[in-house]
Every structure is written in C-alpha cells, then in structure tokens.
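Notebook B, p. 112. Complex prediction, attempt 2.
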Amino acid sequence: MLQYILYKAIIYFDLFIIVYVVLVNIINMIQMVISMAYTPRYLRKAKFSDIKMFSESANMVPISILVPAYNEEPTIVDSIKSLLALNYLTYEVVVLNDGSDDGTLRAVIEAFNLRKITYPICSKIKTQEVYGVYYNPDFPLLRLLDKKNGGKADALNAGINISRYPYFASIDADSLLDSDALIRIAMSFMEYKYTIAVGGIVRVANGCTIKDGQIIDLVLPKKNLPRFQIVEYFRAFLVGRVGWSAVNSLLIISGAFGAFQKNAVLKVGGYTIDTIGEDMDLVLKLHKYMRENKYKYRISFLPDPICWTQAPEKVKYLYEQRRRWHIGLIDSLSRNREMFLNPRFGVLGMLAMPYYFFFELLGPVVEGLGFIIIPLSYFSGLLSFKYFILFFITTTIFGVIISVGALAIEEYTFNKYSKLSDVLLLTLYSVVENFFYRQMTVIFRLLGVLRYRKFKYSWSKMKRHGFSQSNSDSESSVVA
Amino acid sequence: MEIQTIIIFICVLASVLAGLYIFIICTEIAQVRRTKVEQLHMQTIRPGLESILAAPDFGYDELYNEYVTAARKNIKNKAYRNMLEMVLLEHLEKSGEQYKKRALCVSCDLGFPSLCLSQIKSRNNRNVAFGCRKAGLYQHEEAIPYMLKALSIFSNDTQFQILMGLSRIGDVDAMCGAFQIISGYVIVNERAAFEILEVFSGDKEELYKRMIHCEEEYIATIFIKSLNQDIAKALVEDIVGILENGGKEMRIAAIKAIGKIGQNAPTNYLRNALVDDDWEVRAIAANVLGMQVDLEASKTLASALLDPEWWVRQNAALSLLSYPDCKELFLSVMRTKDAYARDSIVYALENAERLDMLAEIQLMLEKADTEKTEKDGEGILKDERLRQVV
C-alpha cells in the first residue's frame, strides 16, 4: 500500500514538474516577445527625444542622488567622482555613511576636503542618530551625512530626510552610472507626471576599463562567473523587467539604481528598515498605497539608463548575494501578502504576485526536488529513458531560448558588445549556463529558503576592490 | 503524451533557437555594415552641409544651389536621406540663428517638411511623435491641424512632442487650442511644460495673458510658474489678482512670479503671504523675500523663524541674510531659546560663510547668559541674606 502511494506521488510529482516547467517558460517567452516589441520601439523613441537639449536645461526635474555606504572605502571615491560628472544640471549627491568601521568617512572627507557644518534636518522619517553633515563649497553638489549604523534602508531614509529635491535616486556605492543615465531616467518623470518610480538596467562592469568614473572600453570579463552573470542580467532585465513594466506590475526596482518621487515614498513611510529586501518592499508598498487609494500612477523600467556594477567573481560571494536576494524576496512577499491573488490589485495581484510566489520564491524548492525525484523516478523505472531525455532536452532548450532571446534583444537594440567574438562567446555561455550555473544558483536560492530565519536580517560582508582595478581581473571580488 | 509529439515540440523549440541565433549573427553583420555606410555618408554630409551653413554671404547663393542640386540627387538613397535629415535636425535644434535659418532653407528645398506630414498622420504613436518633433523644428505651419488632431492620442511622449512642436512653430492660437484640447488630461510633468513654453517662438506675452486665466488650474499654474521677468512685469496686475483669489498652487506660482519681477515688485503681497494658512505658501514667500528685499518685511521674516514648519524656518533664515538688520534679528530670535530656529540660523550663516557674524552672535549670547547668571546669583545671595536675616 505504502509503495503504491509512493509510486502515485512520484508520478504526480513528475507531471507537476512538467507542467510547472512548461508554464514558467511559456510566461518567460511571452515576456520575451513583449520585450522584443517594446525595447526597439523605446530605443527609437529615445533616439529622437531631446536628451541632449534637456541635459543642458534648468527645467529638468531636480534629483537628489542618495549613495548609502557601509565599509565602501575602496570604491566610494571613484563612485562619487562618477556621480559628480553626470550629464545633468540640477542635482545633488548625498553620500550616507552608515556607521562604517573602515575608512569610508575619512576617505570621502579627505578626497573632497569636506568640513562639518550645522545642517538642520527635516526628520520626516525616523532614523538612527545623525552625527553630522559635511560639505565643501568647492563641491556644491556634494554632501556627506555621517550616521549611526542602522542598515541600508535606514541610511536611505536619512538621505530622504536630508535631500532637497522632490525626486531622489538611490545608487549603490560600488556602482557607476553612465553619464546620460540620470537624464534618461528623469525624462520618464518629465514626460508622464504620474510616474512615481523608475528603474534602470544594471550591467556587469567586471573586466571593463574605467576612467574618471566612466566606462571607456567594454570587454567581456576573463572569468567565467561574471560572464554567466552577464547573460543572467540580460535575461532578468531585458526580458523579465521589461515584460512586467509593460503591464505596470513591476515588483522590483533594483537597489543598485532606481529613482523615486519623494512624496510618494514619504506617504508609504520610506524604506522598511527591518528587511534586507528593502528595494522590493518599497516598490510593493508603493503599488499597494497607490492602488488602495485609486491614484493614477506608473512604476516603470527603462532598459537604457545604465548602472554598472561589479559582479561577484567568487562562488562564495555569489552564494551570499543570491541567498540575500532570495531572503529579501520571501520577506517582501510575505509583508505584502494581502495583494496576493487579490483582484482589487488587478494584474499585479492576480498575475505578478502569484508569478513571483510560485516561480521565483518556490522555484528553487520545486526545481531542487525535481533534481532529486526525476532521476529517482528514472532509476526506479517509473520514467522511461526516452521521456527522461526528452524532458531534459525540452527544459534546456527553453532555458537557452530565453537567454539567447535576451541576448538577441541586447544585440538588436543596444549592441554594447560590438565584437562578433564577444557575441558568439556570450551565446556559448547562454547554452553552457544551463548545465552548471543555473543549477548552482538554484541551490543557493534554496539555501536562502532553508536559512531564511537565520539570515533574515543579515547583510553579508564582501570583499571589494576599487573600480580602477577591475580591468586587471584581480583575485578580490565584490558586490551588494 | 506521445513521444512523437514531444519530439515535434522539441524540434519547434530548436528551430526557434536556431532562428534566434541566425537573427543575432545577421544583426551583428547588419550593424557593422550600417555603421560603415553611415560613416561613409557622414564623411560627405556633415562637412558639405556645414560649409554651406558657415559660408560668408558673398557667393552664398551659388554655393547653396550647387549643394542643394547635388543633395537632391542623393536623397533617393534612404540611408543618405536619413543621415542628412538627422544632421539638419541637429542644427535646427542646437545651432545659432543664422545656421538655423540656413538649415531650414535647405530642409524646405529638399522637401523634408512635407515628408513629416505623412509621419504625423501615421497610426504608429512613435511615428506621430517623431513627425511632430520634426514639424516643430521645421516650423511647418501646415502641420498644425494634424498635430492638434493627434492630441487625442493618450501617450506621454506623443503629447510631449506635439506640444513641443507647436511651441517651436510659435502660433499662439494653436498653442492655446492645444492646451484647451488636453485640458483635464495633461500628462506631461510641469517641468516638461516649462521646457515646452521656453522654446515658444511666437508672441509669448499674448500667450501668457490668455493662458494664466485658464479654467484648468494645473495649466494656469504651469503658465504662471514659467513666466519670465519681462512677461511677469507686463502682467503684474493679473498676477496680484491671482495671489488674492487663486487656489494654493496658483498662489505659490504667483509668489514665484513676483519674485522674478525685480525692482518695483509688489512685495506687500509677499508680506501677507508670510502669514498664509498653507505652509507651502509661507515657505515660498519666505524664500522670495530673500530675492526681493523688502525692508518692512524683516520683522515678519524673523517671526517666520519660529514657524512650526521646517521649510518656512529654513527659507526665512536664508532670506534674512539679505537684510541689513539681520544680525539684530537673528540675535533676538536666538534669545527665545527655540532650538529649531537656532539651528536654522546657524545653518544659514555657515552656508553663507558668515562665520564672523555667527561668532559675534554667539559671543553676545554668552555674554548675556553670563550677566543673567550673575544676576541670578545675586538673587540667590539676596535670598540667602534674607534667609539669614529671617
């Protein structure tokens, strides 16, 4: 009897896995088709929207750039220099030292010769104690806020309090912005007044040559891990985010680079401090607030304001990053669970939230079980060899199509990797990743599910190196 | 499921994948080819056109005719035509007046303005937007009715480009008509609207006079906020009227407009605005009183340092720096021991690099405190003496 129940359970699980895999891939393919239609049109529009004229205009929306920094000594000065060189007229850069215990504060003060000033802060959101504000009239765009450690979200909240402008962009201290990134993101707010948040694309900077905070030579990194991540980032941003943005159901704006309307963020109480998925949580809170109050709004993703980041080059750091991302996902979805399958929230509640729950959150659990049960059912004779192989080929081809599709979108539109050899290499990696890299990240995410309670509030520390070293492919590595 | 069905399914997927691969390779090759062609055309187009635009008046006509005749032959080539139009649009957008004038002549003689009409009539929103942008740059008045008609498209970049195009053409009636049509569904941000109004090439005063009294408050506010000094001076009576009767946003806009007037601005209205019920109005009034120094307003500004709203205090402190009696006023406010007001004053003085004044005020306060302590001490002594007596 027990054997029979086990037999039936395995059979049904096999069927469930097949349906699950086909469903998730069909959704991804639909998103890919949407992106294939949307991205070239967006790019054509971007070519004739008066970006150059606006970059010199005082009428652009003024933006405060918030740069939370915790132990970012090696990269912080380069990042600030890149931000001070942006092609934009009315903006300020607010560096938020979140109680770093390395030389971050000293590095910034010395590099820009800042001095402490009395700065009354309008505390719209409660934060940890602020120790002081630093400023140098020779760098009028820059201010440094030093505060007690309270986490990234707390630092960003302090930044919102001190910021002067009605829009703010949050940027990771280990990231670089393209010189036109801010103007492109601001155009979104300019052209549609109901836009409350905009996310930009994050690309991998490993291996690139950087001068004065700007990428001057884009080449593929020498190491395998960042190359896999290039393909993965294309898939996530050019397929996933564009697809969800098209139906105004974007659930996440990357913490590495996103811009927000300050009033809307203040209405939802700013960033949530006791979560490590503060970026996703904020977007979900904004959706919830706007839809509950029936306000007209848009949260969009743009594929061309580029933020360059250093991807982990070591498995250890990649594991910590993915675990953190997955814990953030679980936390954000559970905090906003009332939107789940709630018709009041439209496509967001009925499609995006269930997708993120079933395919993103539970994905590693189902896939992890699949890795065990499908071979088990083959070896126990429940699944024929032919079906086993065919299933494997189908899932692999699906995966490769999505990755190659994302690469095709990139090549057709932005064509950042202009060498044919680079493109061919990336297509090769989009095939190979299905046999090793994807399984590895599934395990990392699964560990995130299993260790949710332990690491719920933990931001792992990662070794960083300056951007100027990134083209030397040094041993050390990165990322937040 | 039959194995054959699965195999067919796999074959379909594999062919999709193969198609994508071929697409990527073709894209790469096409990209390289396109870049080469563009570079080739650019080598002839840009220098040729720029030599015409920069040519001296003497002998210009001959050079011009020669250039246009040659260009007419080449524009049958699509790549050439697109490149030439791109360079022309660039000049029309950014170059000086003489270049613009000449570039416009070249565009008209080559028939580019009439080509953009078909784009405006297109069903594709992006084409419409692009066509409107071109029509604006070519100042093609024939396009106005089509552009107004296209305003029914509910698309942000289309609305933006249509308004921008109309503004560049500079027809007051068309512009007023356009805002009338989109009244109630203006989807561009007010800053985008400022940009649109800034490039208006027609009679601005007439346009503003008509639009600042627009029934739609959002549109009227945009117009008031974007007034420049000259027009603000000319329309001062209308602005004062708005300050007395308008809604909150309009009052704020009117205060900002008064701030732009300079000498002879009706600052008495700003003084009244400092005690407005809405804190945003008070904050803006405090800010503007820093630009439009009104000696009679200094005491009201000083009392604004004790305002419950942060921004009002902050702006008042910064504005008071422009007043000759600011030291005395700061000192009197600091004596109230209001910590928020004190912080605002310290910030304002540090920000303006007036550290000498800050030190002086602090010294005076310390001196006053010491004197007070001594007096209090005497009081205690007196009490003790009294106690001893008792």
